[in-house]
Please model this.
Amino acid sequence: MPKNKTHSGAKKRFKLTGSGKIKRQQANRRHYLEHKSSRLTRRLAKDQIVTKADEGRIKKMLGK
Model:
């Protein structure tokens, strides 16, 4: 049987934590930052944990 390949887009976007949860970065932090408030840009800088609904699909793409 051939091996499954890791989804190359997913491996750049998601990281597994030690406890097995999946971390992701928030959207809207790439450009046009000068007209977004400092409060918003600080809030968007933090990583988020992926929801339970998406977790299985992402783990499958990561080959976990």
